[in-house]
Amino acid sequence: MAADHPDKTYVLFDGLVAMPKGANKNVNSIAYRQNEASYLAGMLAAGLIRTAPFRRTVEQRWDFLGGMDIPLINDYLVGYVEGARAINRGIKIAVSYQAHFRTPPG
Questions:
Q1: CATH number for the domain that contains residue 40
Q2: This prediction's pTM
Q3: pLDDT tens digits, 78-92
Q4: Domain of 66?
Q5: Which of 3, 8, 38, 68 can bridge 76 by disulfide, Cβ–Cβ 3.0-4.6 Å?
Q6: Using alpha carbons only, what angle is made at residue 31 by residues 63 and 83, rounded to the nearest 5 degrees?
């Protein structure tokens, strides 16, 4: 599509586009490591539960539900856990997997 519309600018999120011989100059790619983004998400979540109105005074136990037990999801999980533990070393996280990425009917 980018080649058909050279006057437009495109952003490919979570991927890279080939640029052979100067092709696709109107496409910008955003690539990141899952564990880096999820580290920040874990820090944010743990920080939120330390402040009102989310404050928790009881022992913190979280659950993580992954779509599938695959390297990509596990990489995300590692970053999330480490980010949360950067804010609260005592946090406990139970991990389980759904075994698919399908949306439930309804």
A1: 3.40.50.2300
A2: 0.64
A3: 999 999 999 988 888
A4: 34-97
A5: 38
A6: 30
